[in-house]
Phosphoglucomutase (Keratinibaculum paraultunense), 563 residues
Amino acid sequence: MDYLEKYNYWLSSEYFDEDTKKELESIRDNEEEILDRFHTNLTFGTAGMRGKIGAGTNRMNKYTVSLATQGLAETIKARGKDAMKRGVAIAYDVRHFSKEFAEITASVLAANGIKVYLFDDIRPTPLLSYTIRKLGTISGVVITASHNPKDYNGYKVYWEEGSQILDDIAEEILNNINAIGDFSNVKFMDLEEGLNKALINYIGKEIDDEYIEDVKSLALNEDIDKDIKIVYTPLNGTGNKPVRRVLRERGFENVFVVPEQENPDPDFTTVGYPNPEDIKAFDYAIRLGKEKNADLLIATDPDCDRVACMVKDFNGEYVALNGNQTGALLVKYILSSRHRDGTIPKNGAIVKSIVTGDLGKAIAKEYNVATIETLTGFKNICGKANEFDKTGEYTFIMGYEESIGYVYGTIVRDKDGVISSMLIAEMTAYYKKQGKTLLDELNEIYKKYGYYFEKLISIVLEGVEGQERINRIMDSFREDPIRNIGDMKLMKIIDYLNDETGNPKSNVLKYYFDDGSWYAIRPSGTEPKVKVYIYSKDKEKQASKNKIKAIEKATMDRIESIK
Ligand SMILES: O=P(O)(O)OC[C@H]1O[C@H](O)[C@H](O)[C@@H](O)[C@@H]1O
């Protein structure tokens, strides 16, 4: 069926309810909108299935969620009775329809004879990962669109190790979805019936308690200044309870939560775009920070897997740390603490993505810790932890990405905003006791390892037209690479579509210069964006800054020239 046929099918089939049809009727004269909603099906991208909420095959709605779940159910059933009995843990965030989609997921799985552990209320994504490992389930699902705007929702699928599925299982699920054919082949069971038959089981407090205990066991230092003042904002998401709890139980008593952003709000009214990568998400936190004279501001995204922070500088202004900087600080803090304690494993490794900067790698090297690189996506980073469990080749110490995701240890196989908030608070308190801020520490790191700077540029290009322009941009860089920029000579190009380094194929281009600077370009797998990652390196601060500017100008000129 083409998109118009699909549109008409949704309008005429008895399977779809009246509200859905009404919504679709209202776009009858808007061909572009019909095209966008029906030209494709939502598929698994960097972090699961993600899309705008609404009627259509390319939207998040009860039909696409139930179809995906039937595909997941078939994938589990193919593994036999034991897998079905081990079951699936389900969590959800604060978004519109998150709870409804979680219940639909539970009801489809139960109808297929698969046991379900459904959280009794909103929970952070990392807690779902932890739960899979604790309960020994075969799989897990979180209903969340992470940091996307309010009109999005999503469906992240996890497998038995506790990390998000990789392409092999995603493909299996997709094949199963395609084989289901019509929506009417999806099975349902009433939630009540599932509960009565003990196929659906609510979970909550006990798991929270165990999780918090295990998170606290990751602490690295007690000789810290616990009087530091921290402003925390969960950005109206799921972080509020666990992050506050872990900070409180670690002894931080001066934690002030942004009141307007404390409670769940699916519209993220005071934030707009609930992504702490964007400094605007800190507006309210900065205000409260100034009022309280806070040392540190922490923000977690709605499903509490991402964290960003801002630090008070010498004249009382707040300075944002980006994901590369926070990641490098964590690498330094974790490895230096463990070096002191003599607990760095012989075959220890940190894992980062191919578009994450190299400062963490330089620090790790000094502690004889290897740095392993993967494609973008925490599923790939934690996929390495799973791999190491099997091969014993390395011991996973921590993973991080430039997109403000970090995890320490292996109790959680995804980025974890609770663990990371605790460690960011702890390292701030640790350095404060030594009379330093995180900015002072970062400067010392730069002085020692070189000025590794970065700039990440995201260009939003929406809809079918946007996607086509993204393709043209990628084609242009691929076919006609920019040779030299200023004094930097192009040394090496990696096209991850033809890469031989063992990574799966991916639409990423990376350009290395002779001085250690580099840039990469790729379409986002979670949002309608093309992303440019620029990294410079120099012994001199200003020279490193200038290199960023030069690469930015050259790449942006090229992008702007492609209509
Ligand atoms: O660049 P994208 O494909 O949009 O992905 C950006 C980020 O999205 C999610 O948060 C993933 O969990 C991350 O691993 C990824 O880095």
Notes: The chain has 19 helices and 21 strands. The radius of gyration is 24 Å.
